[in-house]
Amino acid sequence: MKFWDIASTNKDGVLDMYVYGDIKTDRGWFGGADDVITREFISDLQKHPNVKRINVHINSGGGEVFAAVAIAQQLKKHSAEVHTYVEGVAASAATIIAMAGDVRHMTVSSLYMIHLPSTNVQGNKHQIAKSIEVLEKVEDIIRLTYQNKTKLSDEQLTDMLDHETWLTAPEAKKYGFISEIEEDPDEEEKEEEEGDEGEKKLKSLIKDVTAEIVSINGIEFNIAAYADPLQ
């Protein structure tokens, strides 16, 4: 069963969809039950051409860049108003989907992470050089995606990508990655805090830690995939 079918709703012209897991092009032999598969997600989206609003709920450590780009493009093409909600973590490729929202929300206890694209490669010097060329072009695509919505210059985004940047909700809003901050359901009176609160926010979300695997809002993440998950 596809994860977003478990909790998705289509009531009163509003469609809720969930990106709670790794974003992948294909399910493959070793895929997880929570994997968000591009073709399946888009197929489900296309079953609802007449909805007026789409809410995309995100808690994902990322995945394949072009799988995320394809989902984002289909959301943008839909006639509905798209709202994206970061509910835990939007990291790496998951931020591409988050940026597809006409309105981009983030809960006050969530985190947002951007970094350089990466790949696994082997071969001779020409093949490695070609991989670097492709990675640089993918980086250009990612930077352009952020520039279309944020208040950041090319130089600022390059620096943030180079240093794997983690942002709290107030920071993400300040830079323009999101447009609205949502209070946690049990913290209605909590004030928005400025400054570097990334470590505190991440620890408040982590429910379980086993070696390099952490569980955040019920979704497991391999933190070894990131250079420094608290910076």
Which whole number gives the mean pLDDT? 82
Largest sheet: 8 strands, mixed
Strand content: 25-35%
Element pattern in H and E: HEEEEHEHEHEEHHEHEHEEE
Structural class: alpha/beta
CA-based gyration radius: 17 Å
So what's the overall shape?
globular
Helix content: 25-40%
| Helix count, DSSP H or I runs of 4 or more residues | 8
Spans where pLDDT lies below 50 across 5 or more residues: 1-7, 188-195
The total beta strand count reads: 13
N-to-C terminal Cα separation, in Å? 36 Å
Explain what the structure shows.
The protein has eight helices and 13 strands. Strands 1, 2, 5, 6, 7, 8, 9 and 10 form an eight-stranded mixed beta sheet that branches. Strands 11-12-13 form a three-stranded antiparallel beta sheet. By secondary structure, the protein is α/β, with parallel strands linked by helices. It is globular and about 55 Å long. Helix 2 runs parallel beside helix 3. The N terminus is likely disordered. Strand 1 and strand 2 form a beta hairpin. It starts with a helix and ends in a 9-residue tail after the last strand.
Layout of helices and strands, plus pairs?
Blueprint: H1 3-7, E1 10-11, E2 14-19, E3 23-24, E4 36-37, H2 38-46, E5 53-60, H3 65-77, E6 81-91, H4 94-98, E7 103-107, E8 111-114, H5 125-147, H6 154-162, E9 165-168, H7 169-175, E10 180-182, H8 198-205, E11 206-210, E12 213-216, E13 219-222
Helix pairs in contact: 2-3
Summarize the structure.
With 231 residues, the chain is of the alpha/beta class. Helices cover 34% and strands 26% of the residues.
